[in-house]
Amino acid sequence: YVKKANEELQQSQLAVELNKSQLAAQVASIYYSLAYLDKAIALEDTVLNAMYAHQKVVNSKLRNGDALVLD
């Protein structure tokens, strides 16, 4: 009985270590996903700001008669 209990204890300890490793891998994966998304959002913000700046220029040219609606 003692031998079997020790083997079960060892299996349980190995299972706990495996779960810890899997959890650490999942946390790292989520961390890097969030870091990527943060950079992607910053890039999209830059693109949007450039688009808005271009839109202001085109609107100004339209008001002044210097641009076509196609611009």
Provide a descriptive summary of the structure in words.
The protein has 71 residues and is mainly α. The chain contains one helix and no strands. It has one helix at 2-64. The chain is rod-shaped, with a radius of gyration of 29 Å. The protein starts with a helix and ends in a 7-residue tail after the last helix.
Task: Write a short abstract of this structure.
It contains one helix and no strands.
Proportion in β-strands:
under 5%
Rounded mean pLDDT is 93
In whole angstroms, the N-to-C terminal distance is 84 Å
Report helical residue fraction. Answer: over 70%
C-alpha Rg (nearest Å): 29 Å
SSE layout and pairing:
Elements: H1 2-64
Spell out the key features of this protein.
71 residues; mainly alpha; 1 helix; rod-shaped
